[in-house]
From TrEMBL:
This is Nuclease SbcCD subunit D. SbcCD cleaves DNA hairpin structures. These structures can inhibit DNA replication and are intermediates in certain DNA recombination reactions. The complex acts as a 3'->5' double strand exonuclease that can open hairpins. It also has a 5' single-strand endonuclease activity. Residues 1-218 form the Calcineurin-like phosphoesterase domain. Residues 268-356 form the Nuclease SbcCD subunit D C-terminal domain. InterPro entries: Calcineurin-like_PHP (IPR004843), DNA_Repair-Maintenance_Comp (IPR050535), Metallo-depent_PP-like (IPR029052), Mre11_N (IPR041796), SbcD (IPR004593), SbcD_C (IPR026843). It comes from the Bacteria. The keyword Hydrolase applies. PANTHER family: COMPONENT OF ATP-DEPENDENT DSDNA EXONUCLEASE, NUCLEASE SBCCD SUBUNIT D. Heterodimer of SbcC and SbcD.
Amino acid sequence: MKFLHTSDWHLGRSFHRVNMLGAQAAFIDHLVATVEEHRVDAVLVAGDVYDRAVPPLPAVELYDRALHRLAGLGVPTVMISGNHDSAPRLGVGAKLIEGAGIFLRTDPAGCSDPVVLADVHGDVALYGLPYLEPALVKEALGAPKVSHEAVLGAAMDRVRADLAGRPPGTRSVVLAHAFVTGGQASDSERDITVGGVEAVPAAVFDGIDYAALGHLHGCQKINERVRYSGSPLAYSFSETDHRKTMWLIELGADGELVTAERIDTPVPRALGRLRGRLEELLDDPALDAHEDRWIEATLTDPVRPQDPMARLAARFPHVLSLAFDPEGREDDGAASYAQRLRGRTDQEIAEDFVAHVRGGGHADDAERAVLRGAFDDVRTQAVSRETLR
């Protein structure tokens, strides 16, 4: 049986200031074409369908079109809610649309209620485990404590119990949305540490033929049977080196992985990360390939240049992010704010502030004189108020 594993669509999300709805629509087109081309038996969407709990209307319309197109192909789609989704909203009408072959799993109580498909080798049970917020589902799942490992373990115990009661040889697939130990994170995933230890061991999925994971945005293999599809589009510059794909998985007669192929997804525009002094970035011919990319630039000039964004945009018209990391800047390390100020005068602190906002350029003599005069005026006014009392 052949599955297309995808996740983390984040419909409605932008990339810095760029609206990504067109790129997300192109991905849906590609998804549908892939299902047809490879004669996929089921589509698995492992959470974070939307980018936020109340998505914008265009994102909802795109989601609606995607479901209609998948249903029109007659290919079952199993979809779970992720930590970005509102599970109750995503699950509205779930029972009604099952007749169209769309199976939404957003209620933790239904984690042991699989979608059962069949081929010439027998049944395949697909279990959808929505994102499990430990503090909210501990009691319902009978977990021993409030942690991601505990609640996911409790849900998997229910899955294994249901599987044990099915005909011998029933193959199994689990969809889950979690941070599994060994996974590589990026900057664009929302932190899920609130509510307990975030990482869960891959062993929690022992006994399952394939675990289709969502949450981490890089396509990766935890082990042969536990994999992340990653997001179909890049949503942060930390994903510059990602190859965005979906997993095309084929399970054999005994639940073995016959094939596990990465299917590339459309790239709206390549990403680039540049670092160096402004003039070097503007003059370096080796950077010609970056001129059509979305760019994150980090300038290392000791003194912040004039109009850096405009000057960068003249060569790199798609520059989206600009940061400063001046060469030679002192590293404050882990010292606290109070420790850094201890023993320093008001004048020295003010001069340090000038250097900080300039990205390393210290106050000159005239500016130091202005600061000194300002402090003198403040002290004079303070003395006058005390005298009047």
